[in-house]
Amino acid sequence: MSIGYALNLRLLAAFRFLLVPLVRILVRNGITFNEAYEVLKATYARVAATDLAVPGQPMSHSRISITTGLPRKEVLRALKNEERLRRALQSHAGQVVNVLQGWHNDPEFLGPYGVPRDLAFGGEGASALSFADLVARFASDMDPELVLSELIRVEAAKVAEDSGMIRVLKRTYIPEQMAPELVEIFSRGVRRYVETIDHNLAERDPDRRRFERWVFPDYGIREEDWIQFSDLVRNRLQDVIEDLETKFALFPRPQVGDRILSVGVGLYVYKDDLADDRKFQEIVESLLKGDPEGDSGTPN
Question: What percent of the chain has pLDDT over 70?
Fold first, then answer.
């Protein structure tokens, strides 16, 4: 076995390992293999067109076809679908997050001791900065009424009964299960982590690699200790997030003409399913032996 073949096999095995939770989400939501296959082809075409372009030479359908192994007609169809897929991912999640962050970090919207102020909805004639001003500053192309409705829906804000002022309740925005906003947050979170891994694998200079650390109990934990472990991590990392969020607000806000970088820090806790591979191997052995009705696994 050549070194190149062994490396490719290892990469494919790692890719399959990475795909397991992603495919699980697709299957759970009724996405078939053929639908996912079309997206994979489009992704191959996009990566070849952007990341593998040769400086000074125009990219062509033929070059993308040679690089990816896709027929030219498939490349053309994939590129035509790119805009449709890009629009399908868009939601207002990022802008709602910006509103919450601004409310907690912008000094003009904070009261004594750095506590976010209750805000009037605003409009013409308002003397103090209002909720409408907050939205205009941090999500300028969104309707303040829609933002308020969404924050109230996810219980991140409420309208005080006694004063009618809008009060923020949470720093974080967590949409309902499988809402478009949650799909966008999930996809961007996974991609950002994998992009970090890709950068660190390709970067030879250790000082230029992005921060990436792991910490875990050496011997694992008992199953009955999982909730205690999860609560410990959640509480400690929430403090870290809030501290970083406050310090991030000290960076000057980019102005028109500045080259803007989208940056941040992602934190999460993991829990490996050690029984998953064992269960899969048992299923494979059972299928290869034939099902209880006598199917030998040989196609008709």
Answer: 84
For 70-83, the pLDDT digits (tens) are 888 888 887 777 77
CATH of domain 93-168: 1.10.10
HSE value, Cβ hemisphere, 13 Å, CA-based, for 236? 9
How do residues 220-271 score in pLDDT, each as one tens digit? 899 999 999 999 999 999 999 889 988 888 898 888 889 989 899 989 898 8
Helix (H), strand (E) at residue 225:
none
Q: Terminus-to-terminus CA distance in the chain, angstroms?
A: 34
Q: Read off the tokens for 44.
A: 């191959």
Query: Is residue 91 within a helix (H) or strand (E), and if so which, with residue range?
Result: none
**Shortest CA distance to 182 belongs to which of 154, 209, 203?**
154
Q: Distance (Å, rounded) from C-alpha 40 to C-alpha 209?
A: 28
Query: What does the pLDDT look like over 16-45, one tens digit per residue?
Result: 888 888 888 888 777 888 888 888 888 888
**Angle between helices 72-89 and 180-202 in degrees, nearest 10:** 120
Question: Are 138 and 147 in contact, with CB atoms under 8 Å apart?
Answer: no
13: pLDDT confidence band, cut at 50, 70 and 90? confident
- Does the structure show a pLDDT above 60 at 294? no
Identify whether the C-beta of residue 26 lies closer than 8 Å to the C-beta of residue 36: yes
Q: Give the C-alpha separation, 53 to 71, whole Å.
A: 18
Question: Among candidates 34, 14, 15, 36, which has minimal Cα distance to 25?
Answer: 36
| C-alpha triplet 102, 108, 111: angle, nearest 5° | 95
Residues contacting 90, CB < 8 A, separation 6+: 184
pTM higher than 0.70, yes or no?
A: no
Q: Compute the C-alpha angle 77/78/84, nearest 5°.
A: 100
**What is the rounded distance in angstroms from the CA atom of residue 226 to the CA atom of residue 221?**
7
Q: Is 152 helix (H, G, I), strand (E, B) or coil?
A: helix
